[in-house]
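User: Let's play a game. I give you a shape written as tokens, and you guess the letters that built it. Ready? Here's round one.
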């Protein structure tokens, strides 16, 4: 295989592999309610104590409680279960060999017919895998497959073997195991996700090999009808784009795309009586345009959209997708011509505006928004706001933005606070901090407005005023107090008040030792002033 092809294959397969063995095996460490009912009250009591600590992840305490249960009730129905959980505690404590040899193996030796024996055999393999003992892990997993071929642990074992094969870059083994999961394993609640992911990974592998039919067969094990078509197209995009983007392999991309297009066309629903049936049929044509676009064949995309409009008629959904294609290609004039055909003129103008904004052509963008003001009589403020936002955040034309915000402040009394805040922010962004402070002061969203005012005062080198505002935040917004106190430290530092700044940073460490601001103050004291403190207040000058 060509080197680029190998790299594409490895990337696709590795990214598509599911390695969640810990999550899938979660149910193996539970005991059925029927078995719980067989326990005496004293046994249940002791086991509940152990389970409580296990659930709280207090592994050492749980370990001792399970061991106590085994000592007191070695003939109990729950004895193998306690041994299993004891073993899992050992594993959490990183005593992996002990977990295997004295834990899981003991379950197999003393209770070979118990459900816990099945789980233990799997956990032995998993523990070896986590230790990096690949040879032993593979041997243990193969024993699971031989002993319990129809049990869910075999599915978990296969999934883990796929993970090992991924580490070893053993594609052949992965493909064989994916096939087993996709085609041979019965789908249950516990196995469905693993088998589904295997079918997806197998399909991706086949598509990268340009084995289209095999890829479809893999997906057919999980999906059918419209969902199948969706999955086929979704898994084709990556290899089609990868091959089409490589000059030496473009032929593969075209071939794979054509195979996908032919298959989708063959599966277009024939029934088109209801709106739902029409939508399903049209969706297949959209998938065809997507495949052509992924393979870089723009003329085929346009021809397919023309076919869609001929077969289904032209509406804003079709036109929006066609315009979106032109935008992705940077063909903005053509996109705008399509948006101009929208039945919903308001939406069409809005989209035209964003195309101009994409091109940094702000005045035509504003003009497009202005066309919506008389069209959208119920909500004209929306478009004035869009104009102001464009001037403010894209064009950086702050005076124009402020002028529009001022108009909105007069015309839209229900949102006074929004426009006050936007005016203040526009003044701030333009560097007019004095004017910004005046409008922030009229805002009611404390402490955010005080935060911004304080920063404006700092930019104006009015440090005393900033400190006053930060102190008001400390008194009125306890959750923001650590941050505000830290800012006082920085403010005093900027004012040249070195000793006061140091004392403030030390205060942050003393008053809020568990907050992130304390860590920042601690690091700042060390880096700038060579002073080390322990979070909590004690200090030592170096």
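Assistant: Ready! My guess for every position:
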């Amino acid at each position: 295989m060509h080197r680029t092809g190998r790299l594409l294959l490895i990337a696709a397969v590795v990214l598509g592999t599911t390695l969640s063995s810990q999550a899938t095996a979660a149910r193996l460490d539970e005991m059925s309610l029927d078995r719980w009912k067989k326990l005496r009250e004293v046994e249940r009591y002791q086991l509940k104590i152990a389970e409580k600590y296990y659930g709280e992840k207090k592994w050492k305490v749980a370990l001792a409680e399970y061991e106590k249960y085994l000592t007191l009730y070695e003939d109990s129905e729950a004895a193998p279960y306690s041994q299993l959980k004891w073993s899992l505690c050992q594993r959490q404590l990183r005593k992996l060999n002990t977990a295997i040899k004295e834990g899981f193996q003991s379950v197999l030796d003393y209770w070979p017919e118990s459900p816990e024996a099945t789980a233990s055999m799997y956990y032995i393999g998993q523990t070896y895998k986590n230790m990096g003992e690949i040879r032993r892990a593979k041997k243990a997993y193969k024993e699971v497959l031989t002993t319990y071929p129809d049990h869910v642990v075999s599915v978990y074992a296969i999934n883990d073997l796929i993970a090992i094969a991924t580490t070893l870059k053993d594609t052949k083994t992965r493909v064989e195991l994916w096939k087993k999961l996709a085609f041979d394993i019965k789908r249950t609640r516990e196995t469905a996700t693993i088998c589904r992911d295997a079918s997806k990974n197998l399909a991706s592998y086949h598509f990268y090999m340009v084995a289209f039919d095999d890829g479809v067969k893999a997906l057919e094990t999980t999906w059918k009808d419209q969902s199948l078509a969706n999955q086929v197209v979704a898994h084709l995009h990556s290899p089609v784009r990868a091959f089409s983007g490589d000059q030496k392999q473009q032929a593969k991309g075209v071939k794979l795309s054509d195979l996908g297009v032919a298959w989708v066309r063959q599966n277009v629903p024939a029934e088109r009586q209801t709106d739902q049936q029409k939508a399903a049929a049209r969706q297949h044509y959209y998938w065809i345009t997507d495949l052509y676009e992924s393979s870089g064949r723009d003329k085929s995309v346009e021809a397919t959209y023309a076919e869609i409009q001929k077969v289904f008629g032209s509406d804003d959904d079709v036109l929006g997708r066609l315009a979106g294609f032109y935008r992705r290609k940077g063909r903005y004039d053509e996109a705008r011509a399509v948006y101009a055909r929208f039945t919903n003129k308001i939406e069409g103008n809005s989209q035209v505006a964003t195309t101009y904004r994409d091109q940094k052509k702000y005045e035509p963008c504003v003009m497009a928004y202005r066309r919506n003001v008389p069209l959208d009589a119920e909500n004209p403020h929306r478009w004035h706001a869009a104009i102001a936002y464009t001037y403010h955040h894209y064009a950086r034309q702050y005076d124009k933005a402020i002028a529009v915000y001022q108009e909105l402040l007069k015309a839209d009394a229900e949102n006074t606070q929004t426009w006050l805040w936007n005016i203040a922010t526009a003044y701030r962004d333009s560097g007019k901090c004095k004017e910004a402070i005046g409008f922030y002061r009229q805002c009611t969203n404390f402490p955010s407005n005080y935060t911004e005012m304080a920063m404006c005062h700092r930019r104006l080198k009015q440090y005393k005023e900033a400190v006053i505002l930060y102190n008001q935040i400390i008194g009125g917004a306890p959750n923001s107090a650590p941050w505000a106190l830290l800012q006082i430290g920085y403010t005093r530092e900027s004012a040249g008040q070195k000793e006061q700044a140091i004392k403030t940073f030390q205060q942050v460490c003393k008053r809020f030792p568990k907050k992130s601001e304390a860590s920042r103050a601690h690091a700042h004291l060390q880096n700038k002033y060579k002073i080390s403190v322990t979070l909590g207040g004690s200090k030592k000058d170096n």
